[in-house]
Structure prediction request, 221 residues.
Amino acid sequence: MSDTTVPERRTDDLEPDAPARAAPDPTLPPPPPGDTKWDDTTADEDTSFRYPDANAYDQTRLQEPADAVVVRDQPERTKMIERDTLWSPSQIAPLAGGVVLIIFGLSAIIKGGLGGAVDAPVVSVFGYAHTPLLGLIELGAGILFIVAGLVPYGRTVGIVLGVLTAIGGGLILADLNWVNRHLTTDSDFGWILIAIGGGVAVLLAVLPRVKTHTVEYRPTT
Prediction:
């Protein structure tokens, strides 16, 4: 029987062992009893308990329940409305002139009536002789003056009406035969029309217009 010699096995020829398992960190809290989700049994065939990351553990414990509802205030949606307004203090002039003419015209129509000829009879309105025809002209001119005073862009119309009224007053002041037969026999009434028409035209032409810009915010539906 021959003697066999078993060669000595050198430790440096062996394959390197798996990384040594780190000892549990005594500063970390122990795992929950019966909770196996922290057991890492698939890595490196290591069946020993492994502590998870401390931050992940704390975040998992503080995680909100799945059915939690978080309500946040939504910003209110609004729309911006810009508006430009054009007006002038001279708009008071055609309004006042229109009121005076309407009063004269209605008084002449009510007193004289419209049942017959419009140029008869001749009635007295505030001391001045009027026919129903002159009352109709005054009523129409007064309405146009008021419209021009209410509309910001009626400045040009108001100036034209003022000039025409002043011209009419000049014709009455001239004491023409047609005016005496159909409108009035009092030439002095022409001064009233000249004052109303000329005053409205001058004020509308001289006084400036003011433009205001308004911004308004409204909630949208």
